[in-house]
Each structure stands twice: as C-alpha cells, then as structure tokens.
C-alpha cells in the first residue's frame, strides 16, 4: 500500500530543520551535559495555581467530551481579551478554541487554501510554517526579509509574489528573529493583502512578550478584520506549552465552518484543560507579565555579554523569547556554527537555516535557562565565535 502524496510531501523531501536539536537530545539521553538553548520551553513551568485548577476541575468531572468550538466561557474570555488589546469588537462567535497554536495554524490554512493553491510565508519563518502549508495540500512560497532591514518584510517584495496566491502568513513578535513588526510594515502588508485579495494569517502567540515598540494586530487595521485569521495560544503567554490550548479568531462565517473541521479532526479540547486556561486568563496582565519577565531580564543580560566582543552581532531583540545572532564573521554557516558549538562546548542552539534561507549565517538562541546558566553559555558562545573569527 502506498501513502498519500499529501502526507509524504509534508517535509518536501528534505530536513525539517530539527537536526541539531535532535542531535542534542540524543547526547542528553546518552548522559552528556548539554545546555539547551533550542526550543521555546519556559524554564519556570506552568504555575502551580493553574495546575491545581486543572486537577480540581478534572476531579469535578470535566473529563468527558467538551463543546467542540470551546466552552462558551473560554471563548468569551478570549474574545474580551482580543477586544481589549486590539480595539476590534470581538465576540465568542469569532473564536474557535484549538489544541494549541499549531492546530490553529493548520486550521487557518485549511480555511484559506484549496489543494494546489499558493500560501505565502515570510522568511525567516517558524520551522513548521512551510510544512503546515503543505499539510493543507497547498504550496508554500517564501518571501525573504533581509537582515539589512532588521528582518522587517518589505511590502514590495510581498507584492511581487502575491499574484495567484491566496494567503499570507506573518508572525509578530517574530520567531525566530525577535523582531516586532512596525506599523509601517503592517500597513504595507495590509495594503498588499487588500490589493491581491489575500487572506492574512497572523500568528500572535508572542503578543505578551514585547520589549521595544508595541504589538499591533493587523486585524485592527482598516478593512482587515474580514480577511484576517489570528492565531493565539496560552503556551507562551501563560507557560502552558504542554496543555495544548490555543485559539483562532476570525470572521464569524469562517469560524462557523472551521467548527465543522474541528468536529472531524480534533473533536475539541478537554474540558479540564479549557477551564484551567480560563482560570489562567482571569489572572490578568500582571500574571502574564510575571511569565514574560525572565525573557525581558535575559535580553538585557545578553546585551551586556555581547557588548564586549565583535564576532557575534545581535538582531534587535524587540520581542519573544529568542535572540537571533549573526555569526557570519566566523566564516561558518549557522548550521556549521551550531554543530561546532554543540560538539565543542555542549551548547545547543538552532541554526538560522532551520528557519529559511534569509537567516543563513545566523543562529537562534532561546532564553529559556536560568540566568547564570544563560550568561555562562553566551560567554562561551561568543568566545568560540571569536576564536573562529580570528583563525
């Protein structure tokens, strides 16, 4: 028996970008001491009160089938949060609760694309983006954002690839670069979407992690609410990565049809998870700030470490829990440097090439270990880069 072309084609016949990460995990499994600066996994874990709510609500009987669109109280809470943050009137009818942000991303592309369509993505991109488009039966086309522009995508570059496309996926604050898209950037993107009748899929899972500037949801720009699907999640904002509780916000008609999709692929999110998510959202902005504070602090620590050397340059880290570091002065690719750093110093980072061609010669560093461990690893990384650059 032969598997479907859609399934076999998800990875496009090549690497999925996780090679260095998997290599590091094998080393750890073999007993080696590796400092992992690879994935966006909080070192603090989910807060105990949220876990207690999850436990208590499960014991109270919320372990059966939950409403597929999401329990109404959670949909209303997400809608209220979105309304308050963006100024766009939003109701529960605009919200679908999903098993994490990745499920929302897939659902959004199923909504926007037919088999054989083209879905645009900005390069650098989160590692799953092209594969999500392929999983929807469509063809991903990447549009490079330039390091010289601090990875702010240019509207004219998007417009050049827009004819014939059906959707555009963006992410701000951005993973992997840490860049927050400016209003000028987003207005340019909105104009391209309007001119070429594109769905805009906006991944906003890092909206609580903004260190410079302000997060602007493109759904709030004139004429964009009816053509924008917004991906959100409790994973990053509330340190609930393993709970798999996210959402998709969009036009009511789209959400109605997406509920039919959810009925047939996930059948909803467990009730006790949703109720814990509702509890977490009700803790308010102070709780979210507490979750994000370690990354704000470590960003400043990184500035201090990097200020004393010339071999590594940092892309302006305006948001999210990552640093994008330019290591081209070493003469190595991002992948070459990441492998060499892992082999030599047992420090694991993600190669820029895992996130597209535009990030070649860069590495992504996750700020997800204790401050002292983070500083020590960064100093060793910089010293290693200086040695290579001087060779």
TrEMBL record:
Domain Aminotransferase class I/classII large: start-end pairs: 33-373
The entry's keywords: Aminotransferase, Pyridoxal phosphate, Transferase
What Pfam families is this protein classified in? Aminotran_1_2 (PF00155)
Q: Which domain of life is it from?
A: Bacteria
Q: Name one GO biological process term.
A: amino acid metabolic process
Query: Cofactor(s) for this protein?
Result: pyridoxal 5'-phosphate
Q: Where are the transmembrane segments?
A: none
Single Gene Ontology MF annotation: L-aspartate:2-oxoglutarate aminotransferase activity
InterPro entries documented for this protein = Aminotransferase_I/II_large, AspAT/PAT-like, PyrdxlP-dep_Trfase, PyrdxlP-dep_Trfase_major, PyrdxlP-dep_Trfase_small
EC numbers on record: 2.6.1.1
Question: What EC class is this?
Answer: transferase
UniProt cross-references to SUPFAM superfamilies, sorted A to Z: PLP-dependent transferases
Q: So what does this thing catalyse?
A: L-aspartate + 2-oxoglutarate = oxaloacetate + L-glutamate
> To which protein family does this belong?
Belongs to the class-I pyridoxal-phosphate-dependent aminotransferase family.
Query: What PANTHER family is this protein classified in?
Result: ASPARTATE AMINOTRANSFERASE (PTHR46383:SF1)
The protein here is known as aspartate transaminase
